Fold DNA 3'-5' helicase.
Amino acid sequence: MISGTRNRDAGSAPDHGRPIAVPQLAIHKDFLTEFAALDKPVRERVAEVFTKFEQATHTGLHLEKITGARDDRFRTIRIDQFWRGVVLAPESGDTFLLLRVLPHDKAYEWAKTRRVSVNTATGRIELRDVAAMDSALPQLEKMAAKAPERLFAGVSDAVLRKLGVDEQTLGFARTLTEPFQVEAAQSLLPPVQWEVLYGLAAGMSPEQVWEELGAQITEEVDPEDLEAALRRSPERVLLVEGPAELMAVLASPFDLWRIYLHPAQRSAVEASYRGPARVSGGPGTGKTVVALHRAHRLARSGGPVLLTTFTSTLAEALEANLALLAESSGDAEAAGRVRVEHVDRLAHRVFREAHGRPNLLVQARERELWQRVVDRLGVDLSPAFLAEEWRQVVLARQVGSAAEYLQAKRTGRGRALAPTKKAQVWQAVWEFQKELSAQGLWTHETVCEEAARLLADRDDKPFAHVVVDEAQDLSAHQWRLLRAAVAEGPDDMFVVGDAHQRIYGPGITLGEVGVNVRGRSSKLSVNYRTTGEILGWSLGLMRGQAVSDLEGELDSLAGCRSEMRGAEPSVKGFATWDAELAYLRETVGAWIDAGVLPSEIGVSARSNRAVEQAVLALEEAGIPARALARGTAEGGGVAVGTMHRMKGLEFRCLAVVGAGSGQLPEPRGLTPEEEDPGAHSRDLLRERSLLFVACTRAREQLSVSWHQEPSPFIEALLS
Ligand SMILES: Nc1ncnc2c1ncn2[C@@H]1O[C@H](COP(=O)(O)OP(=O)(O)OP(=O)(O)O)[C@@H](O)[C@H]1O
C-alpha cells in the first residue's frame, strides 16, 4: 500500500480534484457472498467502479456523505443509476472498506443504521446495527424492572470492558435477566461481544472467556485506528492489493481461499517441519484448503508430491481445486508435480505394477469363507467377529504368529478374550489366511499391505512429500503405505483431519504407524463455511463426547467459531415419513423461490433407500434432483446423498431428513452391545459423527427433520 496524504471527503458534495494518495480497498467478506448473487451487469459495473477506485489518484473519489448516519465515516459510491456501494472512509490512513452494494434507497437506509467499531480485546473490526440494538432496549428495560436480579450482576463493568464489551453492548447487557435473552440477541450484537456474553451466561469464568477469545493481542488497541484494525481482521476483511487482485477476487467470490489465507492457515502452509506435521480443526476451518496450498507449495520447491485422501470422490474434488489454485497462482507446472490419488488407488497401482491385477475377495465371498472356517473348526465364534478381529487386530497390528496374537493389544475390541478363546481365534485366522493364499485371493487391506511392503523395500521412493486430507479415516495399513511412499526427513508428511468427523475405520494413533508428529501439530479454529448459528447447533451434537485425536489425546472443538451470521437451523419432527417428505418439498421449494439455485441445495439421509425416496419426492414436486453416487458430485439439480456421501461437500442450503430414532443410529450399523461393548460405543460415536458431518455441510440454511421420535443424538438438543 502507498500511504500518504489523508483522503477524507467532507460535506455531501463529491470530492474532486484534491491531491490524494492511492487508496487501498478492503472488502468485507459478507459483501463477496452477496456480490455473487447480483445480476451480471451490476457485477460488471461494481468491478469497473472499484478498479477505478484503486486508480483514483488523479480523478479523486466520488464518495457521498450520508446525512443522519450513525457512523459519520460511512459514504456511498455510485455504481449506476440504481445501485450504490456503501464504503467506510477512514479518518486517518487510506484504506477504504467496501461493505455492501445495494439499490439506492436500501443502501442509504442500511448505512444510516450501522456502525463500525474496533473491539478493544481483539483489536478487530466489528459491524453492528446500532438502531436495532437501541430499539430493543426499552422492552428489555421494562422486563428487567420486574426481575429480581440482572444476569450479569456478578460481573463488573471493568471486567466486561476488558473482554472487549463496549459502551453500547454494556448498556444492553445490563438489561438482561435470563440466559435465553443472550441467545436471542445473537443477530443483534457484534459477534465477538455476543460470544463473551454467551460464555459468561453459560457459567464460564471471565478467565475462561478470555482464553476462548483466543485473539488477545500484545499491542495496545487504538479504537480509532481503523487501518490497524482492518489488518487485524483477516476473518472479516480482505485487503486487496491492486486492480488485478480485485478482478481475481470478484471473478470468483466463492473461491477466496485460492488467494487469501488466514494467518494460522498460512503459517501451516509455509512452515518448514523437521518431520511429519499435523493440522487439525473443526469442520469448515479450511483444512482441505491448507492441504491444497501445502501440496502446491511443496511442488513449487521440488516435488514430486502425493496429495491423497480417503475416497475417489474426494480425490476428484482435490484435483479440480488444485487446478483452480494453479490457475490463480499462474504456476501450472508446479501443480503438474502433484499426483492426486486416493489411498486405495495408490495401493492398487503399486500392487499392479509388481504383480498384475489382484484377484479380489468380495464381501459376500469373504463371509462364506469365514463361515466355512468356523464350521470346519466347530468353534463358537461369529464370522462377523472374526472378520473384524482379523482386520482390526491381526492386520492392523501386523500380527504374524500365535504368540504375537496372544500379546497383541486389542484396543477398541471390547470384551477381553480368555487365552483359550484367543487360541481358537488364531486358529481360525490362520486357516482363513491359508485359504486366501491357496486361492490367490486378496482384499483391499492385503493389497495395501503388500503395496506398503513393496514401497518399504524401495530406496527410490516415489514421492518427496506426502500430503493427506481427511486423515482421521485412514486405517493402519493405509498409513503404512503412505509412510513407505516417502523417505523420512524434513517435510515428509503433512496430515490434516478432524477426529470428530471420523466416520470410517476404527481410529488409530499416528505413532502406532510410524508417523511421529509430536511437537509439530497446529489447530485451525475459524470456520469459513457455516454461519455461527448452524455451527453452534452442530457442535452441540458432539458436546460431551470423548473423541481421541490422531495422537491419542482427547480432541476438543472448543474455540471452533464462525463470524458469519444467519438463520437458526430449523429442527422439526413429523408423524409420518410422508409428512416429512412433504415438508422437505416445501422447504426446498421455498429456498428456490428465494433465489437459491437447485444445484446449491443438498439433501442428506442416513440410508440409500431414504435418499431414493427423497429424490422421488422432489421430482414429483417438479424440483430437479439427483442422487449423489460415485463421481457425481457436480451437476445440476438438488443433490441428494447419504450422510457418508456428504463428506467434503458443501451447500448453501441443506436439509437433513430421516433423523429419527429408528434411522439414526442405523440399527444395522451397530455392533450389538452384548457382543462387543467397545465396538458398540465406537459405532454409536461414528453414527453421531455422520450426522455432525452432514449438518456441517450447510453454508447458510440448515433444516433437520425426522418422523416419529427424534434420534437420541438430537433429543438432547431439543430440551
Ligand atoms: N482463507 C479462506 N478464505 C476464504 N474462504 C476459505 C478460507 N479457507 C477456507 N475457506 C472456505 O471455507 C470452506 C471450508 O474449507 P475446507 O473445505 O478447506 O474446510 P475443512 O476444514 O477441510 O472442512 P471439513 O473438515 O468440514 O470438510 C470452503 O468453502 C473454503 O473455500
